[in-house]
């Protein structure tokens, strides 16, 4: 295997008609090596990271960290309301590329804090936008303009 955990002979195969992926009974799911995430053409998806049910005894806020995620593309998701609608904080320390295209229902990235120190430009349906604020504020402003 190479440094990414893939064999040199492995390739990425698009599956255009895949409508659902369900992972049950996993002992562990580790996404710390994830570098590129692209989700498109999913007509009914409303949220990408589903909020965990709140536990009465757990009052501290959760943080979701994708330490190697460099590129995130969400395209043609007409019912997408947000990446995560929970209050989880997101840390995306290496995110450099964010594309948002044809996601007309998108109102917020997450209801929690988002940290993207390397993100400078967002490629959107209405052009490139330089980010001088957090993603949530940017999305809210653009949604109000539309």
TrEMBL record:
Residues 31-107 form the Disease resistance protein At4g27190-like leucine-rich repeats domain. InterPro entries: At4g27190-like_LRR, LRR_dom_sf. This is Disease resistance protein At4g27190-like leucine-rich repeats domain-containing protein.
């Amino acid at each position: 295997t190479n440094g990414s955990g893939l064999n040199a002979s492995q390739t990425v195969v698009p599956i255009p008609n895949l409508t659902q992926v369900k992972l049950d009974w996993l002992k562990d799911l580790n996404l710390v090596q994830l570098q590129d995430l692209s989700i498109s053409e999913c007509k009914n998806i409303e949220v990408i990271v589903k909020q965990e049910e709140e536990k009465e005894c757990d009052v501290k806020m959760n943080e979701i960290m994708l330490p190697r995620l460099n590129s995130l593309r969400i395209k043609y998701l007409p019912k997408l309301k947000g990446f995560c609608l929970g209050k989880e904080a997101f840390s995306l320390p290496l995110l450099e590329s964010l594309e948002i295209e044809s996601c007309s229902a998108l109102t917020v990235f997450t209801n929690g804090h988002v940290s993207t120190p390397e993100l400078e430009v967002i490629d959107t349906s209405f052009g490139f936008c330089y980010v001088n604020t957090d993603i949530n504020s940017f999305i809210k402003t653009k949604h109000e303009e539309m």
